[in-house]
Amino acid sequence: MTTLLLDASVLLAAFDLEDDHHEPARALLEDDQATLATLDLARYEVVNVAVRAWRAPESVAPLLAAIEKLADDGGVFVSTGALLTRAAELAERHTISAYDAAYAAAAGDSGHRLVSCDERDLVSKDLAELPAMATSR
């Protein structure tokens, strides 16, 4: 199996029982056969959602622990200048945020499959696949 690069939405869905993608996202994180990675940006995104949107600062530690587990598995990619330059190009071409484009650029540069719950900006533009699609392969 190829390495799967997870964006923050997958990590968040795995911890949010009410998220439509909760079950497949959780299954991905628990799959010992899958090699999983993410981008360093995920740390900031999950902390921001836990504190600001969920108003659940107690969720920060488990979310960061999940990212550290990925660091020991497929890795946590660093947002370098070259990566962000490529992300800016993708953001412009696909009319998406630089944050989403950074994940797409990291996946493209590494040859990994990007997994996201962002149907509007990533999945619909064939830049990523949903967690359910990734678990079925």
How are the SSEs placed, and which strands pair?
Blueprint: E1 4-6, H1 8-15, H2 22-30, E2 36-39, H3 41-53, H4 60-72, E3 75-77, H5 81-94, H6 98-110, E4 113-115, H7 119-123, H8 131-135
Parallel strand pairs: 1-2, 1-4, 2-3
Helix pairs in contact: 1-2, 1-3, 3-4, 5-6
Q: How large, in whole angstroms, is the Cα Rg?
A: 14 Å
Shape: globular
Strand order of the biggest β-sheet: 3-2-1-4
Q: What's the order of the H and E elements?
A: EHHEHHEHHEHH
Mean pLDDT: 96
**In which range does the helix fraction lie?**
55-70%
> Residue ranges: pLDDT <50 for 5 or more in a row?
none
Quaternary form? single chain
Biggest sheet overview: 4 strands, parallel
Number of DSSP-assigned strands: 4
User: Please, how many helices?
Assistant: 8
Structure classification: alpha/beta
Strand content: 5-15%
> What is the first-to-last residue Cα distance?
8 Å
Which descriptors apply to this entry?
137 residues, four-stranded parallel beta sheet, globular, alpha/beta
Quick structural gist:
By secondary structure, this protein is an alpha/beta fold. The protein has helices at 8-15, 22-30, 41-53, 60-72, 81-94, 98-110, 119-123, 131-135; strands at 4-6, 36-39, 75-77, 113-115. A four-stranded parallel β-sheet has the order 3-2-1-4, sandwiched between helices.
Description:
- The chain is α/β, with parallel strands linked by helices and 137 residues long.
- Helix content is 58%, strand content 9%.
- The chain is built from eight helices and four strands; from the N terminus they run βααβααβααβαα.
- It has helices spanning 8-15, 22-30, 41-53, 60-72, 81-94, 98-110, 119-123, 131-135, and strands spanning 4-6, 36-39, 75-77, 113-115.
- It has a four-stranded parallel β-sheet with strand order 3-2-1-4, sandwiched between helices.
- The protein is globular.
- It starts with a strand and ends with a helix.
- The mean pLDDT is 96.
